[in-house]
């Protein structure tokens, strides 16, 4: 491989972007200049989505209109719910979500329109409907009827309501809202890059988000939070954590929830999720999840000098809310739809086809032998 080839496109800058700034050395993350620490303290997921799509914070009137549009668009077309019901019960939630988003394109009132206005309308629609798709599949796969969305609840509270059929506690709703704020965008992560590659062919938001969901599913990206939960289950007791993780490191196991392509310090999102997972764990009598993770984090940081990323504590918070492990990555998706949409809008505004090259290392003078003349 020549030195010009950057494996995994590491550190390759492929475009400019106004949306998201990551300082991997200081551990800072900004959306349109706003520090995520300030957004966590003062904002909501709905307002952050507005910020990502419009590049500025809304006025009170603009926010009211935006919230109303999001809350009013949550219902699924009845035929789409029937399509979900037709899936085998063992369908993985991320696959169900990918199918649902792709199928929603068939209900678009004007599929030929790829203007900014049409993409914004679709961004609202998908951001509103993806939580309904995820919650509906959770109910259907367990033989239950989907719960109709409640437009009076925030997006986060309504999602928890549609999953369980019960209004969530203030702490659970706020924790999910913060998790959605923290996952909303992260520059050119793999799924956002996939969305931009698709959008750069002048394809539409449904196609871009379908590509992105497929990319987010992998265990090196969004699937890592499910891997963390499986690690917690395997460790089971805080007293076993130190021995378990030391053995895993000695066996050269890749530890989910650690390391990052960009951050060289702790991911700035991890501390917020740790705090909320701790509070929720105490409320739900599941403090041992965070106790296990704290020990794992101490040992991995000491021994490998790699630090917790966003996925380390998010699963512990979701599990304390009673959410099944295989729904953690879909929750990531119902947040990242805000960022994917922002990047598709930006890609379409300054489009050029994304088409890199490969350095060819295969043969150059193969001789074709007809099938009948090839040896058995
Ligand atoms: N556990 C153990 N070792 C890790 C590690 C982890 N989670 N993350 C990185 N490393 C080690 C690698 O073994 C490698 O060591 P080596 O040079 O001695 O072989 C080195 O750190 C660099 O790793 P590499 O895989 O080349 O880095 P990358 O930038 O390609 O990968 C991730 C970044 C995120 C894919 C990687 O850190 C990872 O797999 N993390 C676990 C999955 C995860 O939590 N993903 C969510 C990201 S938000």
Strand order of the largest sheet: 1-2-3
Largest β sheet strand count, sense and barrel closure: 3 strands, antiparallel
Query: Which ions, cofactors or small ligands are bound in this entry?
Result: coenzyme A
How many helices does DSSP assign?
16
Work out the number of β strands: 3
Strand content: under 5%
Q: What is the gyration radius calculated from CA atoms?
A: 22 Å
**Oligomeric state, counting identical vs distinct chains:** single chain
Q: Provide the residue-averaged pLDDT.
A: 96
The N- to C-terminal Cα distance equals: 34 Å
Low-confidence stretches: none
- Fraction of residues in H or I helices: 55-70%
Sketch the topology as an H/E string, one letter per element.
EEEHHHHHHHHHHHHHHHH
Shape: globular
Specify the structural class: mainly alpha
Please give a structural write-up:
- There is one protein chain.
- This protein has 376 residues and is mainly α.
- It has 16 helices and three strands.
- Strands 1-2-3 form a three-stranded antiparallel sheet.
- Strand 2 and strand 3 (34-35) form a beta hairpin.
- Helix 5 (93-104) crosses helix 6 (116-141), helix 5 (93-104) packs antiparallel against helix 10 and helix 10 (205-216) crosses helix 16.
- It starts with 19 loop residues before the first strand and ends in a 27-residue tail after the last helix.
- The protein binds coenzyme A (COA).
- The site of coenzyme A has 16 residues, from loops.
């Amino acid at each position: 491989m020549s030195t010009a080839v950057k494996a995994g496109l590491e550190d390759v800058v492929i475009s400019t972007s106004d949306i998201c700034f990551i300082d991997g050395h200081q551990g800072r993350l900004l959306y349109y200049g706003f520090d995520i620490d300030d957004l966590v303290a003062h904002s909501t997921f709905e307002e952050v989505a507005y910020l990502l799509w419009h590049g500025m914070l809304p006025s009170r009137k603009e926010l009211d209109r935006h919230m109303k549009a999001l809350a009013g668009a949550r219902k699924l077309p009845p035929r789409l719910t029937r399509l979900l019901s037709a899936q085998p019960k063992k369908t993985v939630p991320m696959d169900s979500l990918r199918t649902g988003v792709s199928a929603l394109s068939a209900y678009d009132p004007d599929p030929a329109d790829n203007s900014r206005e049409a993409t914004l309308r679709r961004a609202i629609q998908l951001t509103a409907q993806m939580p309904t798709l995820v919650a509906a599949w959770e109910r259907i796969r367990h033989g239950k009827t989907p719960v109709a969305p409640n437009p009076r609840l925030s997006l986060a509270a309504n999602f928890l309501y549609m999953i369980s059929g019960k209004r969530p506690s203030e702490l659970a709703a706020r924790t999910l809202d913060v998790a959605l704020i923290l996952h909303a965008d992260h520059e050119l992560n793999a799924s956002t890059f996939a969305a931009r590659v698709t959008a750069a062919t002048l394809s539409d938001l449904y196609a871009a988000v379908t590509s992105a969901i497929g990319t987010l599913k992998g265990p090196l990206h969004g699937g890592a939070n499910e891997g963390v939960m499986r690690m917690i289950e395997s460790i089971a007791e805080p007293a076993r954590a130190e021995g378990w993780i030391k053995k895993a490191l000695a066996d050269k196991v890749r530890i989910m929830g650690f390391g990052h392509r960009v951050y060289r310090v702790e991911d700035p999102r991890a501390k917020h999720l740790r705090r909320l997972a701790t509070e929720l764990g105490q409320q739900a009598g599941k403090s041992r999840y965070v106790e296990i993770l704290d020990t794992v984090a101490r040992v991995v940081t000491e021994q490998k000098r790699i630090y917790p990323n966003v996925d380390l504590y998010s699963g512990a918070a979701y599990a304390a809310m009673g959410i099944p492990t295989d729904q953690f990555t879909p929750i990531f998706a119902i947040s990242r739809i805000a960022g994917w949409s922002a990047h598709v809008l930006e890609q379409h505004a300054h489009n050029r086809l994304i088409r890199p090259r490969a350095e060819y290392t295969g043969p150059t003078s193969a001789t074709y032998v007809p099938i009948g003349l090839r040896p058995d």
